[in-house]
Amino acid sequence: MLVRSDASGELAVIKYSLAPPAGGTALRHPNLVRIDQLLPSPDGTGGAVVMAAVEGASLQALLAVRPLPPEAALAVLRDSLLGLAAAHEQGVPHGRYRPSDVLVDLTGHCRLLNTGRPPADPAEPDAAYRAPELRLGAPASPAFDGYSAALVFVECLTGRRPSPAAAPPENLPEPVRRVVARALAEAPEVRYPDARSFLTELEAAAAAVHGPQWPERGARLLADAAGATAAAHPLSGPAPAGSGSWWRRRRNRLAVAGAVVLALLAALTVVLVLPDGDGPKQEVREPFTQALAALARTPGVRYQDHDQYTGYYDVTVTATAERYGAVGESADFSDEVAQDLVTVAGRDYLSYRNDARLKGWTYDPGNDEKNMGPVLATYATPAKLAATLSTALDQQPRFPVVGDQAAAAVTVAGQPAWQADTVQGYLYVTKNAPYRVLRWEPPNLVTAMAGLKAMAKDPSGRQPRSLEARTPLTNSLGIDLTPVTGATGLYGKVVQYTKELATASTGSSVQILQQNDGASNVVCSHTGCLVNVAFSGPVYNASSAAYLLDKVYIELTVGSITTGGREAGGCRSGLQPYQLTGTSLSGKLTCNNPAGGPLFDQASAENQANANASGHSEFWDYANRIDLVVHPLDPTAVDQLVAKEQNELQSLG
Known about the structure:
Distance between the termini: 33 Å
Radius of gyration: 31 Å
Oligomer: single chain
Strand content: 25-35%
């Protein structure tokens, strides 16, 4: 197999030595690289040659940078099983599944290579991915492929090549651990008989742990990782075989690469010949490349953005796409409209920090998607941001030139910096090693107007690259960037905010109406006071699957119950789940206050005594401050999210 990259993306050329399926039918499935042409092999047994343009990176290249988050690893396994199942159902086992046989495209989906090739020789290093029987010479089968896929899944989580007796990681949630353990069983008869049965149980277990939207989140994480890896490694392919642990081989490769870079690029410049005949100039390029490569590997990045119209944004984004921060109209966020925000599992929650009535996390699917969603999309993961800016560095940027006094005088917040003019705006990095990103100024109306004024004064002058490329303007006047290197503190914040979501409520997209026509049904007895509330109301689910609520949890809260003139206190029903399957929601909730029982007995006895003495009695039960609070999460869901984030932290460690 040869995998190389050119301007159009990664070009995969895969040679098969096995005859095609009976009747010459080609394998066609979204998770298999398609066999477009069948050609005879030199020995006459039949064969196939495939050429398919795939923009992305191999799974092996992704794992050389860092392990994958749990949902991304599950997405790799799911897509792989889909491809394997398609092949199995046409009678073609894979036989040698391994990370180098998986391509991850820029949409976050995986495709399998080399389906149907002969099994690896037991002496080859990659034979470690084979089931025990296959290493002993048994023929390939669907059960073997499931074993290999489970091994690669474990490697995705741990970053380590499989051992002869691999087992699921100890911190893997039990539902998923149980499925993977069966796939890794030593006895073939215990394993899943084919990829389809393996896939069915995997999807159910993953949904139980991560919720129904886990495939979308996993694909987003894979897309970010593939984009960053493809940008950082324009030539991708199988790594040379070697001995020793994975981290030692990677360290040695990086050491050799670093020595070459230091030897060839000690001056951190390349030669640029200007078209006006001024002679060769030394162009400063390497600090930008190194700064973006370092950014792609960080666990988080902080954005401090000044929007021309809506104010300031201070947002930190993790490598696994969680966000937290604040929005305000003044740079110090001291104004009364400042909002705190957090993004967990693809949902954006907001809280008004200075308003006691609105303080507390709120998730509003409709408003979130229409307003905050597009704005927050600017603040991408470190890998995705690095990929975007790396792509801009490949599109005829203007780098600073050694000896240019204006370039030498550039600073960002008093720190000496290099400035590059790119199709995505101006990028600033530190002038001294170790290089890191400092600031990004996307194209905006201010820079556009400055460019037009300069053009009016000097029509022969050069315009900003973003104007030349006609890049759409943004409202950002500049974003200060700070890579976050401490994963523990970063994810500690995410876990803290996630735990607070246990009390989060929904906004106006889920409205509850008609609480018993405005009255409450209160019944007190010697056992306590029951409050019954019937409700109905519209549900405005957003159209985007990333923001769709498929279930809500409604709680009845009663502030005060009075029985016979005596205050008994309030009650709560606890969170009750309701499926959102249409455009309306209805139901009935009840809460009980046992303390009302003795008070009812006292009031009832007094009322009876008054009735006996005067022939007149007055007795009533009443409840007020009745509220129906709609929550997007319940405590179990919050606990699952916290466990997922703690697993992500461990994967980054």
